[in-house]
Amino acid sequence: MTNNNFLDGYRDAKLVKGIIKQIHQRVTQPWALMEICGGQTHAIMQYGLDQLLPQEIELVHGPGCPVCVTSLELIDQALWIARQPNVILTSFGDMLRVPGSDGDLFSVRASGGKVRVVYSPLDAVKIASENPDKEVVFFAIGFETTAPANAMAVLQAQKMNLQNFSILPANVLVPPAMHTILANPHNRIQGFLAAGHVCAVMGYWEYPPITEKYHTPIVVTGFEPLDLLNGILKTVIQLEEGRCEVENAYPRVVTYQGNQTAQKMINQVFEPVDRNWRGIGRIAQSGYGLRDAYQQFDASHRFQSSNIRTEESNICIAGQVLQGLKKPFECPAFGVQCTPQTPLGAPMVSSEGACAAYYRYGRKGK
Fold first, then answer.
1. From CA 342, how far away is CA 96, in angstroms rounded?
2. What string of DSSP letters covers 100-115?
3. CB 185 within 8 A of CB 214
């Protein structure tokens, strides 16, 4: 059933209808497009954009949820650290329900562990300054978008000479994940909608080599229905015309070079490292690790937690969902064993997870 209700109250309804009409007019064959960002996935589901598009357009949901792709080993490290005496582990709220090998941060807190939700890593720095007798750890997840704030927290802790503050580095990077998806022999993605908030920080200068290597158009896209549909239209036009370029459909926020001040801060504190992605595996140079000059702020070194063994659910197909190989409703556990109340994998927990979006907005397959 097509959802047109949102158009009645949407401020740009006329423009949206016009773009939808253009997409229908331009499409002549099937195309599979992937939106990288989980926030975009939820907007697409919420506003029914997937139902307004011609049937030839398939939207595939990628690894754009930082909570979802945070490796099980890092989650288990966070659980282990949070259970240590005299530790306050701080985290964004989405991480509390993400299942590890034996529980989640919410259950650790319920059992007496000091786990606090913060809205910024600088909140964790403040907690450390107010609790000098406690070890305060910030679980530093996110894509490139959160890396500047994580770097700033480390620099602020250094400036304040805080000996009791550290981070568990978990940032992941978008371009290496795109390489991994496109290099997969089972890949069927023909065009990308790049995440506008990531590109606002990093620009899109890293994307032309990807487009050239894999002959896949990439369009930088925002989050409003109008932004998303405009990005889809630009991608479809390229594909129909046989072009493969990087195009910026979000110029009011994104520039080619990005925020160079933020990039400089990131590069001062962090360096690219290999990182495991939950359900996907190890991707070379796909994460940020602390540089040698800031190793004293690395919680995995401070607590010697990097050798923890992990055990993933053998039912959850989150890895295939995150790579765009399957849709959430294709998982036999979806909506049965795996629900927001009893999640088997992170995509059912996170506010940006594809499984959570499908469950919330009733996408149960054709």
1. 13
2. BTTB-HHHHHHTT-EE
3. no
Phi, psi torsion values for 45, nearest 5 degrees: -70, -45
Phi/psi region, residue 161 (left: phi>0; alpha: psi -120 to 50; beta: rest), is left
- Nearest 5°: phi and psi at 270? -115, 160
Q: What is the pLDDT of residues 89-130, one digit of tens each?
A: 999 998 998 888 888 999 999 999 999 999 999 999 999 999
Q: Which domains does the chain have, with CATH numbers?
A: 67-173+259-302 (3.40.50.11740)
What pLDDT is attached to residue 5? 58
Question: CA–CA separation, 114 vs 93, rounded Å?
Answer: 14
The whole-number pLDDT of residue 7 equals 58
As a whole number, mean pLDDT of residues 175-191 equals 94
Categorise residue 362: left if φ over 0, alpha if ψ from -120 to 50, beta otherwise: left
pTM of the model: 0.90
Contact 181, 216 (CB under 8 A): no
Q: What is the residue type of 133?
A: D
Residue among 83, 41, 80 at smallest CA distance from 60: 41
The token pair that represents 260 in the structure block = 């160079």
